[in-house]
Design goal:
This is HAD family phosphatase. Helix content is 45%, strand content 9%. With 244 residues, the protein is of the alpha/beta class. It has two domains: 169 residues, Rossmann fold; 64 residues.
């Protein structure tokens, strides 16, 4: 993942820590799911495009990428804003959902470096949670099928909060369930919506972009943006070991 293509910011471990990295030791970790732990965003984009072809609708890959990290409650408004009130947005949503359920019946591949990162966090005694915009029945299916569900103390899902990402609610709830303050959590995110949510909650955020590069707003936050969960692990290890 080349820096010029993704907007990646190479993190200098020797520079003076920012407020986000210097306040307190890390006491917990919170993970997004889609596109961060599991390679589901790619599957979803393919389902959107296939459903659009089936319904003979004009819908592009760029349109699909615009929904990366978006809560399902926002999708219909997004489609109407793109194509107008007469666009059969709900038909497209329903057709895509059915395709997605079929496409994800089998276990979904984990992202490279995830299992090693989870093991390091467990060895370090740091509790872990999930904060995903996906509804609970689907999220638990995906996590269980991948063998990940038992590794997390708590899971907060998109159908359990009033204000979805980019609002901070889901990360505030996840931190509370883990018994820590938001600024004591490190959050791993792949989407701009998710980064905004975690940042607004006061968490320390590391972005690992998946299908969509960081936006100008994300870059302006000054958070670390790395190419993989392996690089994210190295950064968290540095933060964690910097404290007595």
């Amino acid at each position: 993942m080349a820096g010029g293509q993704t907007g990646r910011v190479d993190f200098d471990f020797t520079r003076t820590p920012t407020l986000m990295t210097a306040a307190l030791p890390i006491r917990a970790a919170i993970f997004d799911m889609d596109g961060l732990m599991l390679d589901t965003e790619r599957i979803a984009a393919e389902c959107w495009l296939a459903a659009a072809v089936e319904l003979e609708l004009g819908f592009t890959h760029v349109d699909a990428l615009g929904m990366v990290g978006m809560h399902s409650s926002k999708v219909l408004d997004y489609l109407v804003a793109l194509y107008g009130a007469h666009f059969p947005g709900q038909r497209l949503i329903d057709a895509t959902h059915q395709r997605y359920l079929r496409a994800t019946e089998m276990p979904i591949p984990c992202k490279a470096g995830l299992l090693e990162l989870l093991q390091w966090l467990e060895d370090a005694g740091l509790p872990k949670g999930v904060a995903t915009s996906t509804r609970r029945n689907i999220a638990e299916h995906h996590l269980a099928a991948a063998g990940l569900l038992p590794r997390f103390a708590h899971t907060v899902c998109g159908d359990e909060i009033d204000h979805p990402k980019p609002a901070p609610d889901i990360y505030l709830k996840a931190a509370d369930l883990l018994g820590v303050k938001p600024h004591e959590c490190v959050v791993f995110e792949d989407s701009n919506f998710g980064v905004a949510a975690a940042h607004a909650a006061g968490c320390r955020v590391i972005m690992v972009p998946d299908l969509k590069p960081p936006s100008a707003e994300t870059l302006a936050m000054g958070i670390p943006i790395v190419a993989s969960l392996t690089e994210a692990q190295a950064l968290v290890m540095h933060w964690h070991l910097s404290y007595p």
